[in-house]
Design a protein that fits this description.
This protein has about 300 residues and is mostly beta strands. It has one domain (about 10-295): Beta Barrel (Porin), CATH 2.40.160.40. It is about 5% helix and about 55% strand. The chain has 3 helices and 14 strands. The chain has helices at about 10-15, 30, 285-295; strands spanning about 45-50, 60-75, 75-85, 90-105, 110-120, 135-150, 150-160, 175-185, 195-205, 205-220, 220-230, 235-250, 255-265, 275-280. Strands 1-2-3-4-5-6-7-8-9-10-11-12-13-14 form a 14-stranded antiparallel β-barrel. Strand 13 and strand 14 form a beta hairpin. It is globular and about 60 Å long. The chain starts with 10 loop residues before the first helix and ends in a 9-residue tail after the last helix.
């Protein structure tokens, strides 16, 4: 993990191979592309719990927990997320971030996020380390551009401040670049039922490409997702998952349950990673809903 993990956020994006930089239209937008917080049409709240490499036999437990929020405003938006990934009882990485984005034109949205990244070790390591924790500030910049109806381009430049999260030795988080396309190829009433996307990602000496998508086989009820990624480090990952819209379990709040699995083919003996997310979409008050409809933005699926 080493203080510079980019393991994704949320089960929806993970099921699509983390191909999300040109999608970024839910509660996890601030993580993948901070520009996305300006294109959500309702307040989105999400939380995820994940277990990594569940086939390990040595008793190790690698986990992920997160909480995220996207808040639209007139031609702008705000976002927040907290993410913790760790090896239980030994080590954890935390990121706390806030994001802001605004529309600069009918088709272009720009955004940024300020992040506090931290690494912490259990007291087991006290005799080996000069300190048990370290923190550093970083930042991301993002852009979304609506090329044509249903076709978007996205770009995120991550960790532009490259914090050093090493304790006894240097461990600089490298700046990353993620670029991609998203496309809704269907038309008519089924226009938002199918989404396909492509991403390219680089950080330090690592480079990867990925493709993924989702299909709402039962419109407004259930969908299937899949993805595949491969990189120059010899690591390839297949992923998949399901999404179910559960409706208004609470007045004014629409719930969606998402599940994902990921299997790194070169580490298949360690087993898959599983994540479960709950996303809540709040009804807009009439004034905010009218402003949302009036504001042009890169196209996104209707909630």
């Amino acid at each position: 993990m080493a203080g510079n993990t980019d393991s994704g956020l949320g089960a929806r994006a993970a099921a699509m191979g983390n191909v999300f930089v040109a999608v970024a239209n839910d509660s996890y937008a601030a993580y993948y592309n901070p520009a996305g917080v300006a294109i959500v049409r309702n307040i989105n709240i999400g939380t995820t719990y994940g277990m990594y490499y569940t086939g390990m036999t040595d008793g190790s437990s690698i986990y992920e927990a997160d909480l995220s929020l996207s808040i639209p405003d007139e031609k702008s938006g705000y976002g927040f997320y907290w993410k913790e990934t760790g090896l239980r009882d030994y080590y954890s990485e935390d990121t706390l971030a806030g994001a802001y984005a605004m529309q600069l034109s009918k088709n272009l949205v720009l955004g940024g996020a300020l992040k506090l990244r931290s690494v912490s070790y259990a007291k087991t390591y006290q005799v080996k380390l000069t300190s048990l924790s370290i923190s550093g500030l970083s930042a991301d910049l993002g852009a979304l551009y609506n090329i044509a109806s249903g076709l978007n381009a996205g770009l995120t430049i991550g960790d532009i401040l490259s914090p050093n999260l090493g304790i006894n030795s240097s461990n600089v988080v490298p700046m990353s670049i993620r670029a991609g396309l998203s496309w809704y190829p269907m038309s008519g009433t089924a226009k938002r039922d199918l989404l396909v996307a492509l991403d390219a990602y680089t950080a330090g000496s690592d480079f990867s490409i990925a493709a993924g998508g989702e299909y709402w086989a039962m419109p407004k009820v259930a969908c299937v997702r899949g993805g595949y990624s491969t990189g120059n480090n010899g690591m390839s990952t297949i992923s998949g998952g399901l999404g179910v819209r559960m409706g208004r379990l609470v007045e004014g709040m629409n719930f969606q349950l998402d599940y994902s699995f990921e299997l790194a083919t070169s580490l298949a003996e360690l087993g898959p990673t599983h994540r479960i997310s709950i996303n809540v979409v709040l009804d807009n008050p009439p004034k905010a809903a009218a402003a949302s409809e009036a504001a042009p933005a890169p196209e996104q699926p209707a909630k």
